[in-house]
Amino acid sequence: MNVAELFIQCLEKEGVTKVFGVPGEENEDILFALADSKTIEFIPCRHEQGAAFIANVWGRLSGKAGVCLATLGPGATNLITGIADANLDKSPVVVITAQGDLNRLHHESHQLLDIVNMFKPITKWNVAIQGPEVVPEVIRKAFKIAQLEKPGATHIELSEDIAKEKVPAQLAPLNKGFVRRPAPEKESIEKVVELLRTAKRPLILAGNGAIRARVNKVLSQFVQKTNMPLIATFMGKGAISDKLPQSLLAMGLGFKDYVMQAIEKADCVLTIGYDIAEYAPEEWNPKADKKIIHLDFEAAEVYQHYIPTVELVGDITLAIKAIARKLGKDFNPAKKKAWYTPIRNRILKDIKSYDLKTGDNLTVPGTLNILRSMMEDDDLVISDVGAHKMWIARNYPCYCPNGCIISNGLASMGISLPGGIAGALLNGNRRVVSLMGDGGALMNIQELETAKRLGISYTVIVFNDNDYGLISWKQERSANRTAGTTISNPDFVKLGESFGWNGYRPTTVADLKKVLEDCLNNKQLNLIEIPIDASVNQALVQKLKNFFEKK
To answer: What is the CATH number of domain 353-546?
Structure first.
């Protein structure tokens, strides 16, 4: 047995079933070993960034590390955006890259780059394998670190000469141990309870960690028992169902929205699994005067606008249960009148106002309302990055954890089309819709072929305004003009059809409803191009400005 074969045995021991990547000369022994594996399938992708994004979303949805593979040089550099995105979004991913023979690494050589140092700032841990003896430990460590809170990316480099070396007979994959996160200490729980009991308008801010921790059931019970309102970050959507009266949906726009009224009125904010990278604290705590309770797997970062009064570090679920027990049955700061209910009603009324009527131009928020009405509670929407992301975060209610995937750490365009492949592979019975703008769509459009080859089914929606719409939106707000954002596009319908997908371009409200209904139920690959009226973007800014000026 050679090192490459032992490497794949270790992946099998970790429970890996899919490896996404692009083949190269220097990783051929790994590819041969994958081909001989009885439990792991290698899925060739059309670009390394696409492979990285599939592994990224795989890790985020499953909680188990997605795995991607590339060769040295340009193969490795093409992975960088998807891996950096996974690391900032706290998605567990293990990256494998090839390298040339060790005997040529000391001088300038074909495609030679220092990949380990290149990946150092965008991974939790990474290493080059120097000999057969370390393979079991390296792979076990890579998966353990990638999946430990807070999750992220790890990287292993395997040179082509080491991959061919024979393995000593005694070497074998290592067993996985059980890691239990500690519960927060009793004294800290008591301090939290004291803060909540003295607060008049406590509020919960749920972030990415509240989704990863799978705390939905416990957190839902907690907000219903205490009647405390909850706001999610973009990546925290689904921490509780937006059907619950305590949900105020999400915050994260670059300008003041209705939901900010609640956090302005709150005198104590309990953050659960909140990452500063999701939404800067100065956006919701500009005066740095909020009493903050930090509940997460790690201590809070030092930040002027985020200085917690108490930090609860440990298992989120155990902490919530402990707080609930200590508060007792009589704690309900809003039992006379829920102070936040008018804000929730205003948010829901505003979402409803974007319903499309016969003769209306098609818009992103109008499309989302139709889509939400047709999707089951546990179906999956994956957002790309662009103006549409803001509308999805703001206007698309989410009813379950990981029912709406949004990248908001690195926030990289191009994630949702390959991400849909991960969603469809993980659960073939779950309806998956990938939403993107025309800008993000063409960043990884090549993975349409990968999806077709795999025989999976999901729907891609491309909102087309021939513009980098989010940048235009920002420029119009700041300078009342745009520059460098106008683009042109191919015929997306014909492009999709050329890859073997069904292609649609509805232009009326009636057509849109019929196309969406057909695509959600046909269990095929569908690409829907929707020409949109982007004027709703600036109209929202003006509407909110008028509202808050009256206040």
So the answer is: 3.40.50.970
